[in-house]
Amino acid sequence: MQTFCEDATADGNYPSADGVNPSKNDNVVVASGEFDGATVKFQISPDGTAWVDIEDASLTDEGTLRIQLSQQMKVRVVISGAGAGTEVTVKAA
Fold it and tell me: What is the pTM of this model?
């Protein structure tokens, strides 16, 4: 599994490489840890400059998502609303 962020405690953007797994178009994303008010959402970009939210791809508590990606897309995790106790890890396979 590729790690986007491990024990993230602050709001921010956490990029992946050139797609979570360039050999697959369907990816499983797992978020775990203490959210404490944080929202974890996923964005895609063809060029790494202009980012767009992936529809229905956000979590406010531990969970798993299945997202569709093109081999050419870049992906990042955006964490917002992190509280004092936020400590989130996000991985994808």
Answer: 0.81
